[in-house]
Amino acid sequence: MHDLKAIREEPDFYDRNWGRRKLPPQTDAILKLDEERRNAQTDLQKLQQERNEKSKEIGKIKAAKGDAQKIMDEVAALKDKMTALEEKEKQLAEQLNDMLARIPNILADDVPDGPDESANKEIRKVGEPPRKNNVKDHVDIGEGLGMMDFDAAAKVAGARFVVLNSTLARLERALAQLMLDTHTQEHGYTEVNAPLLVTSDVMYGTAQLPKFRDDQFETTDGRWLVPTSEVVLTNLVREDILNAADLPLRYTSFTPCFRKEAGAAGKDTRGMIRQHQFYKVELVSITHPDKSVEEHERMVGCAENILKKLGLAYRTVVLCSGDTGFGARKTYDIEVWLPGQNKYREISSCSNCWDFQARRMKARFRRGEKEIDFVHTLNGSGVAVGRALIAVMENYYDGEGGIVIPDALLPYMGGIKKIEARRKEAA
Q1: Which of 8, 20, 223, 274 is catalytic?
Q2: For 4-101, which CATH superfamily applies?
Q3: From the candidates 170, 230, 387, 394, which is the catalytic residue?
Q4: Considering the chain, what is the average pLDDT of its residues?
Q5: Known catalytic residue: 387?
Q6: Which pLDDT score, from 0 to 100, does residue 131 have?
Q7: Fold of the domain spanning 117-426
Q8: Which of the following is catalytic: 346, 366, 422, 425?
Q9: Which has the closest alpha carbon to 198: 218, 177, 173, 179?
Q10: 90 pLDDT band (50/70/90 cuts)?
Q11: Can 346 be counted among the known catalytic residues?
Q12: Considering the entire predicted model, what is its pTM?
């Protein structure tokens, strides 16, 4: 959501900034609706004042034992006009809020301009992609082990699901445990066991609604399956007024995530890259506005630390204007090297939303004794567990059908140092 007062004061700034996202000018339509709504409010106030004056006059006439029927009829007519104006003002306010809710966040000045991911700017590259002679992707590796079954998943849920079993399922769980332990014990995040069903207000608060309604799974009772636990963690402070001394608040959660992927038809149909259900460890920070830029860099470092512990090559990029998400002011993507695709693929996206979500949630803090302001919110994957599994499988494939367990995961694997086909494990 946007600051309407700021749009009134600097409409050209907002149109120029939204133009960086290739949007046409928006402020004329916004300000026209805003003016109509404000005029309706002014007219309503005038009628209220007139009614109050006539009501006083009625009292005087009655006190003098006179006939006040004519003025009483005028007051009744005013009430009808006020009711109509109240409805008009309500409709205009709803139209204005809906318009503002569908317009993306303002971009930071240092976000590079560009049409799509081809214009994203690499910030750093860590590690060297391994050179392998016998390269396989995660599907061939997992199915070869007998521990990854897309056909079984299709029988019970349809396309874009997978069944993992045996040691491969344990490896995915180990990855999540490593992430949670690292973020809580080393990075200062508080672990949260978050609900998987949320209300429409909560989805609206983090901007999944109304813009991305078609990407979400809605239940028959009007709730929504979470597309990410960011939705829950960020909304923990909705409608709150926090103390500045309590900021930042840092939360992490491991949950399944559910997405229709309505806008991704035909993309990444092979394997686990893009599914309707996947697992992710999420990071959320609620910060003082003066600290959100610093917190953004810190969050990226926390996510990168997971890949460093796993010994995976990756690169970090800042997204350009045409690739930055709807609710983000600035976003860093961390891309891990996948030998099976011979390229880097996103495994974490860390965004600073500034006060965009906070305005929708009415999440505020006390700057001083009297001043109240909106917090800034940030979110990021710390990291996507399914994609981390893919990266470990492909980068630690031994060329003979097995997967060597990275050292960082050994404490979570119960003595297993290498995943091999079931017949070998049984032996």
Answers
A1: 274
A2: Serine-tRNA synthetase, tRNA binding domain (1.10.287.40)
A3: 387
A4: 95
A5: yes
A6: 86
A7: BirA Bifunctional Protein; domain 2 (3.30.930)
A8: 346
A9: 218
A10: very high
A11: yes
A12: 0.93
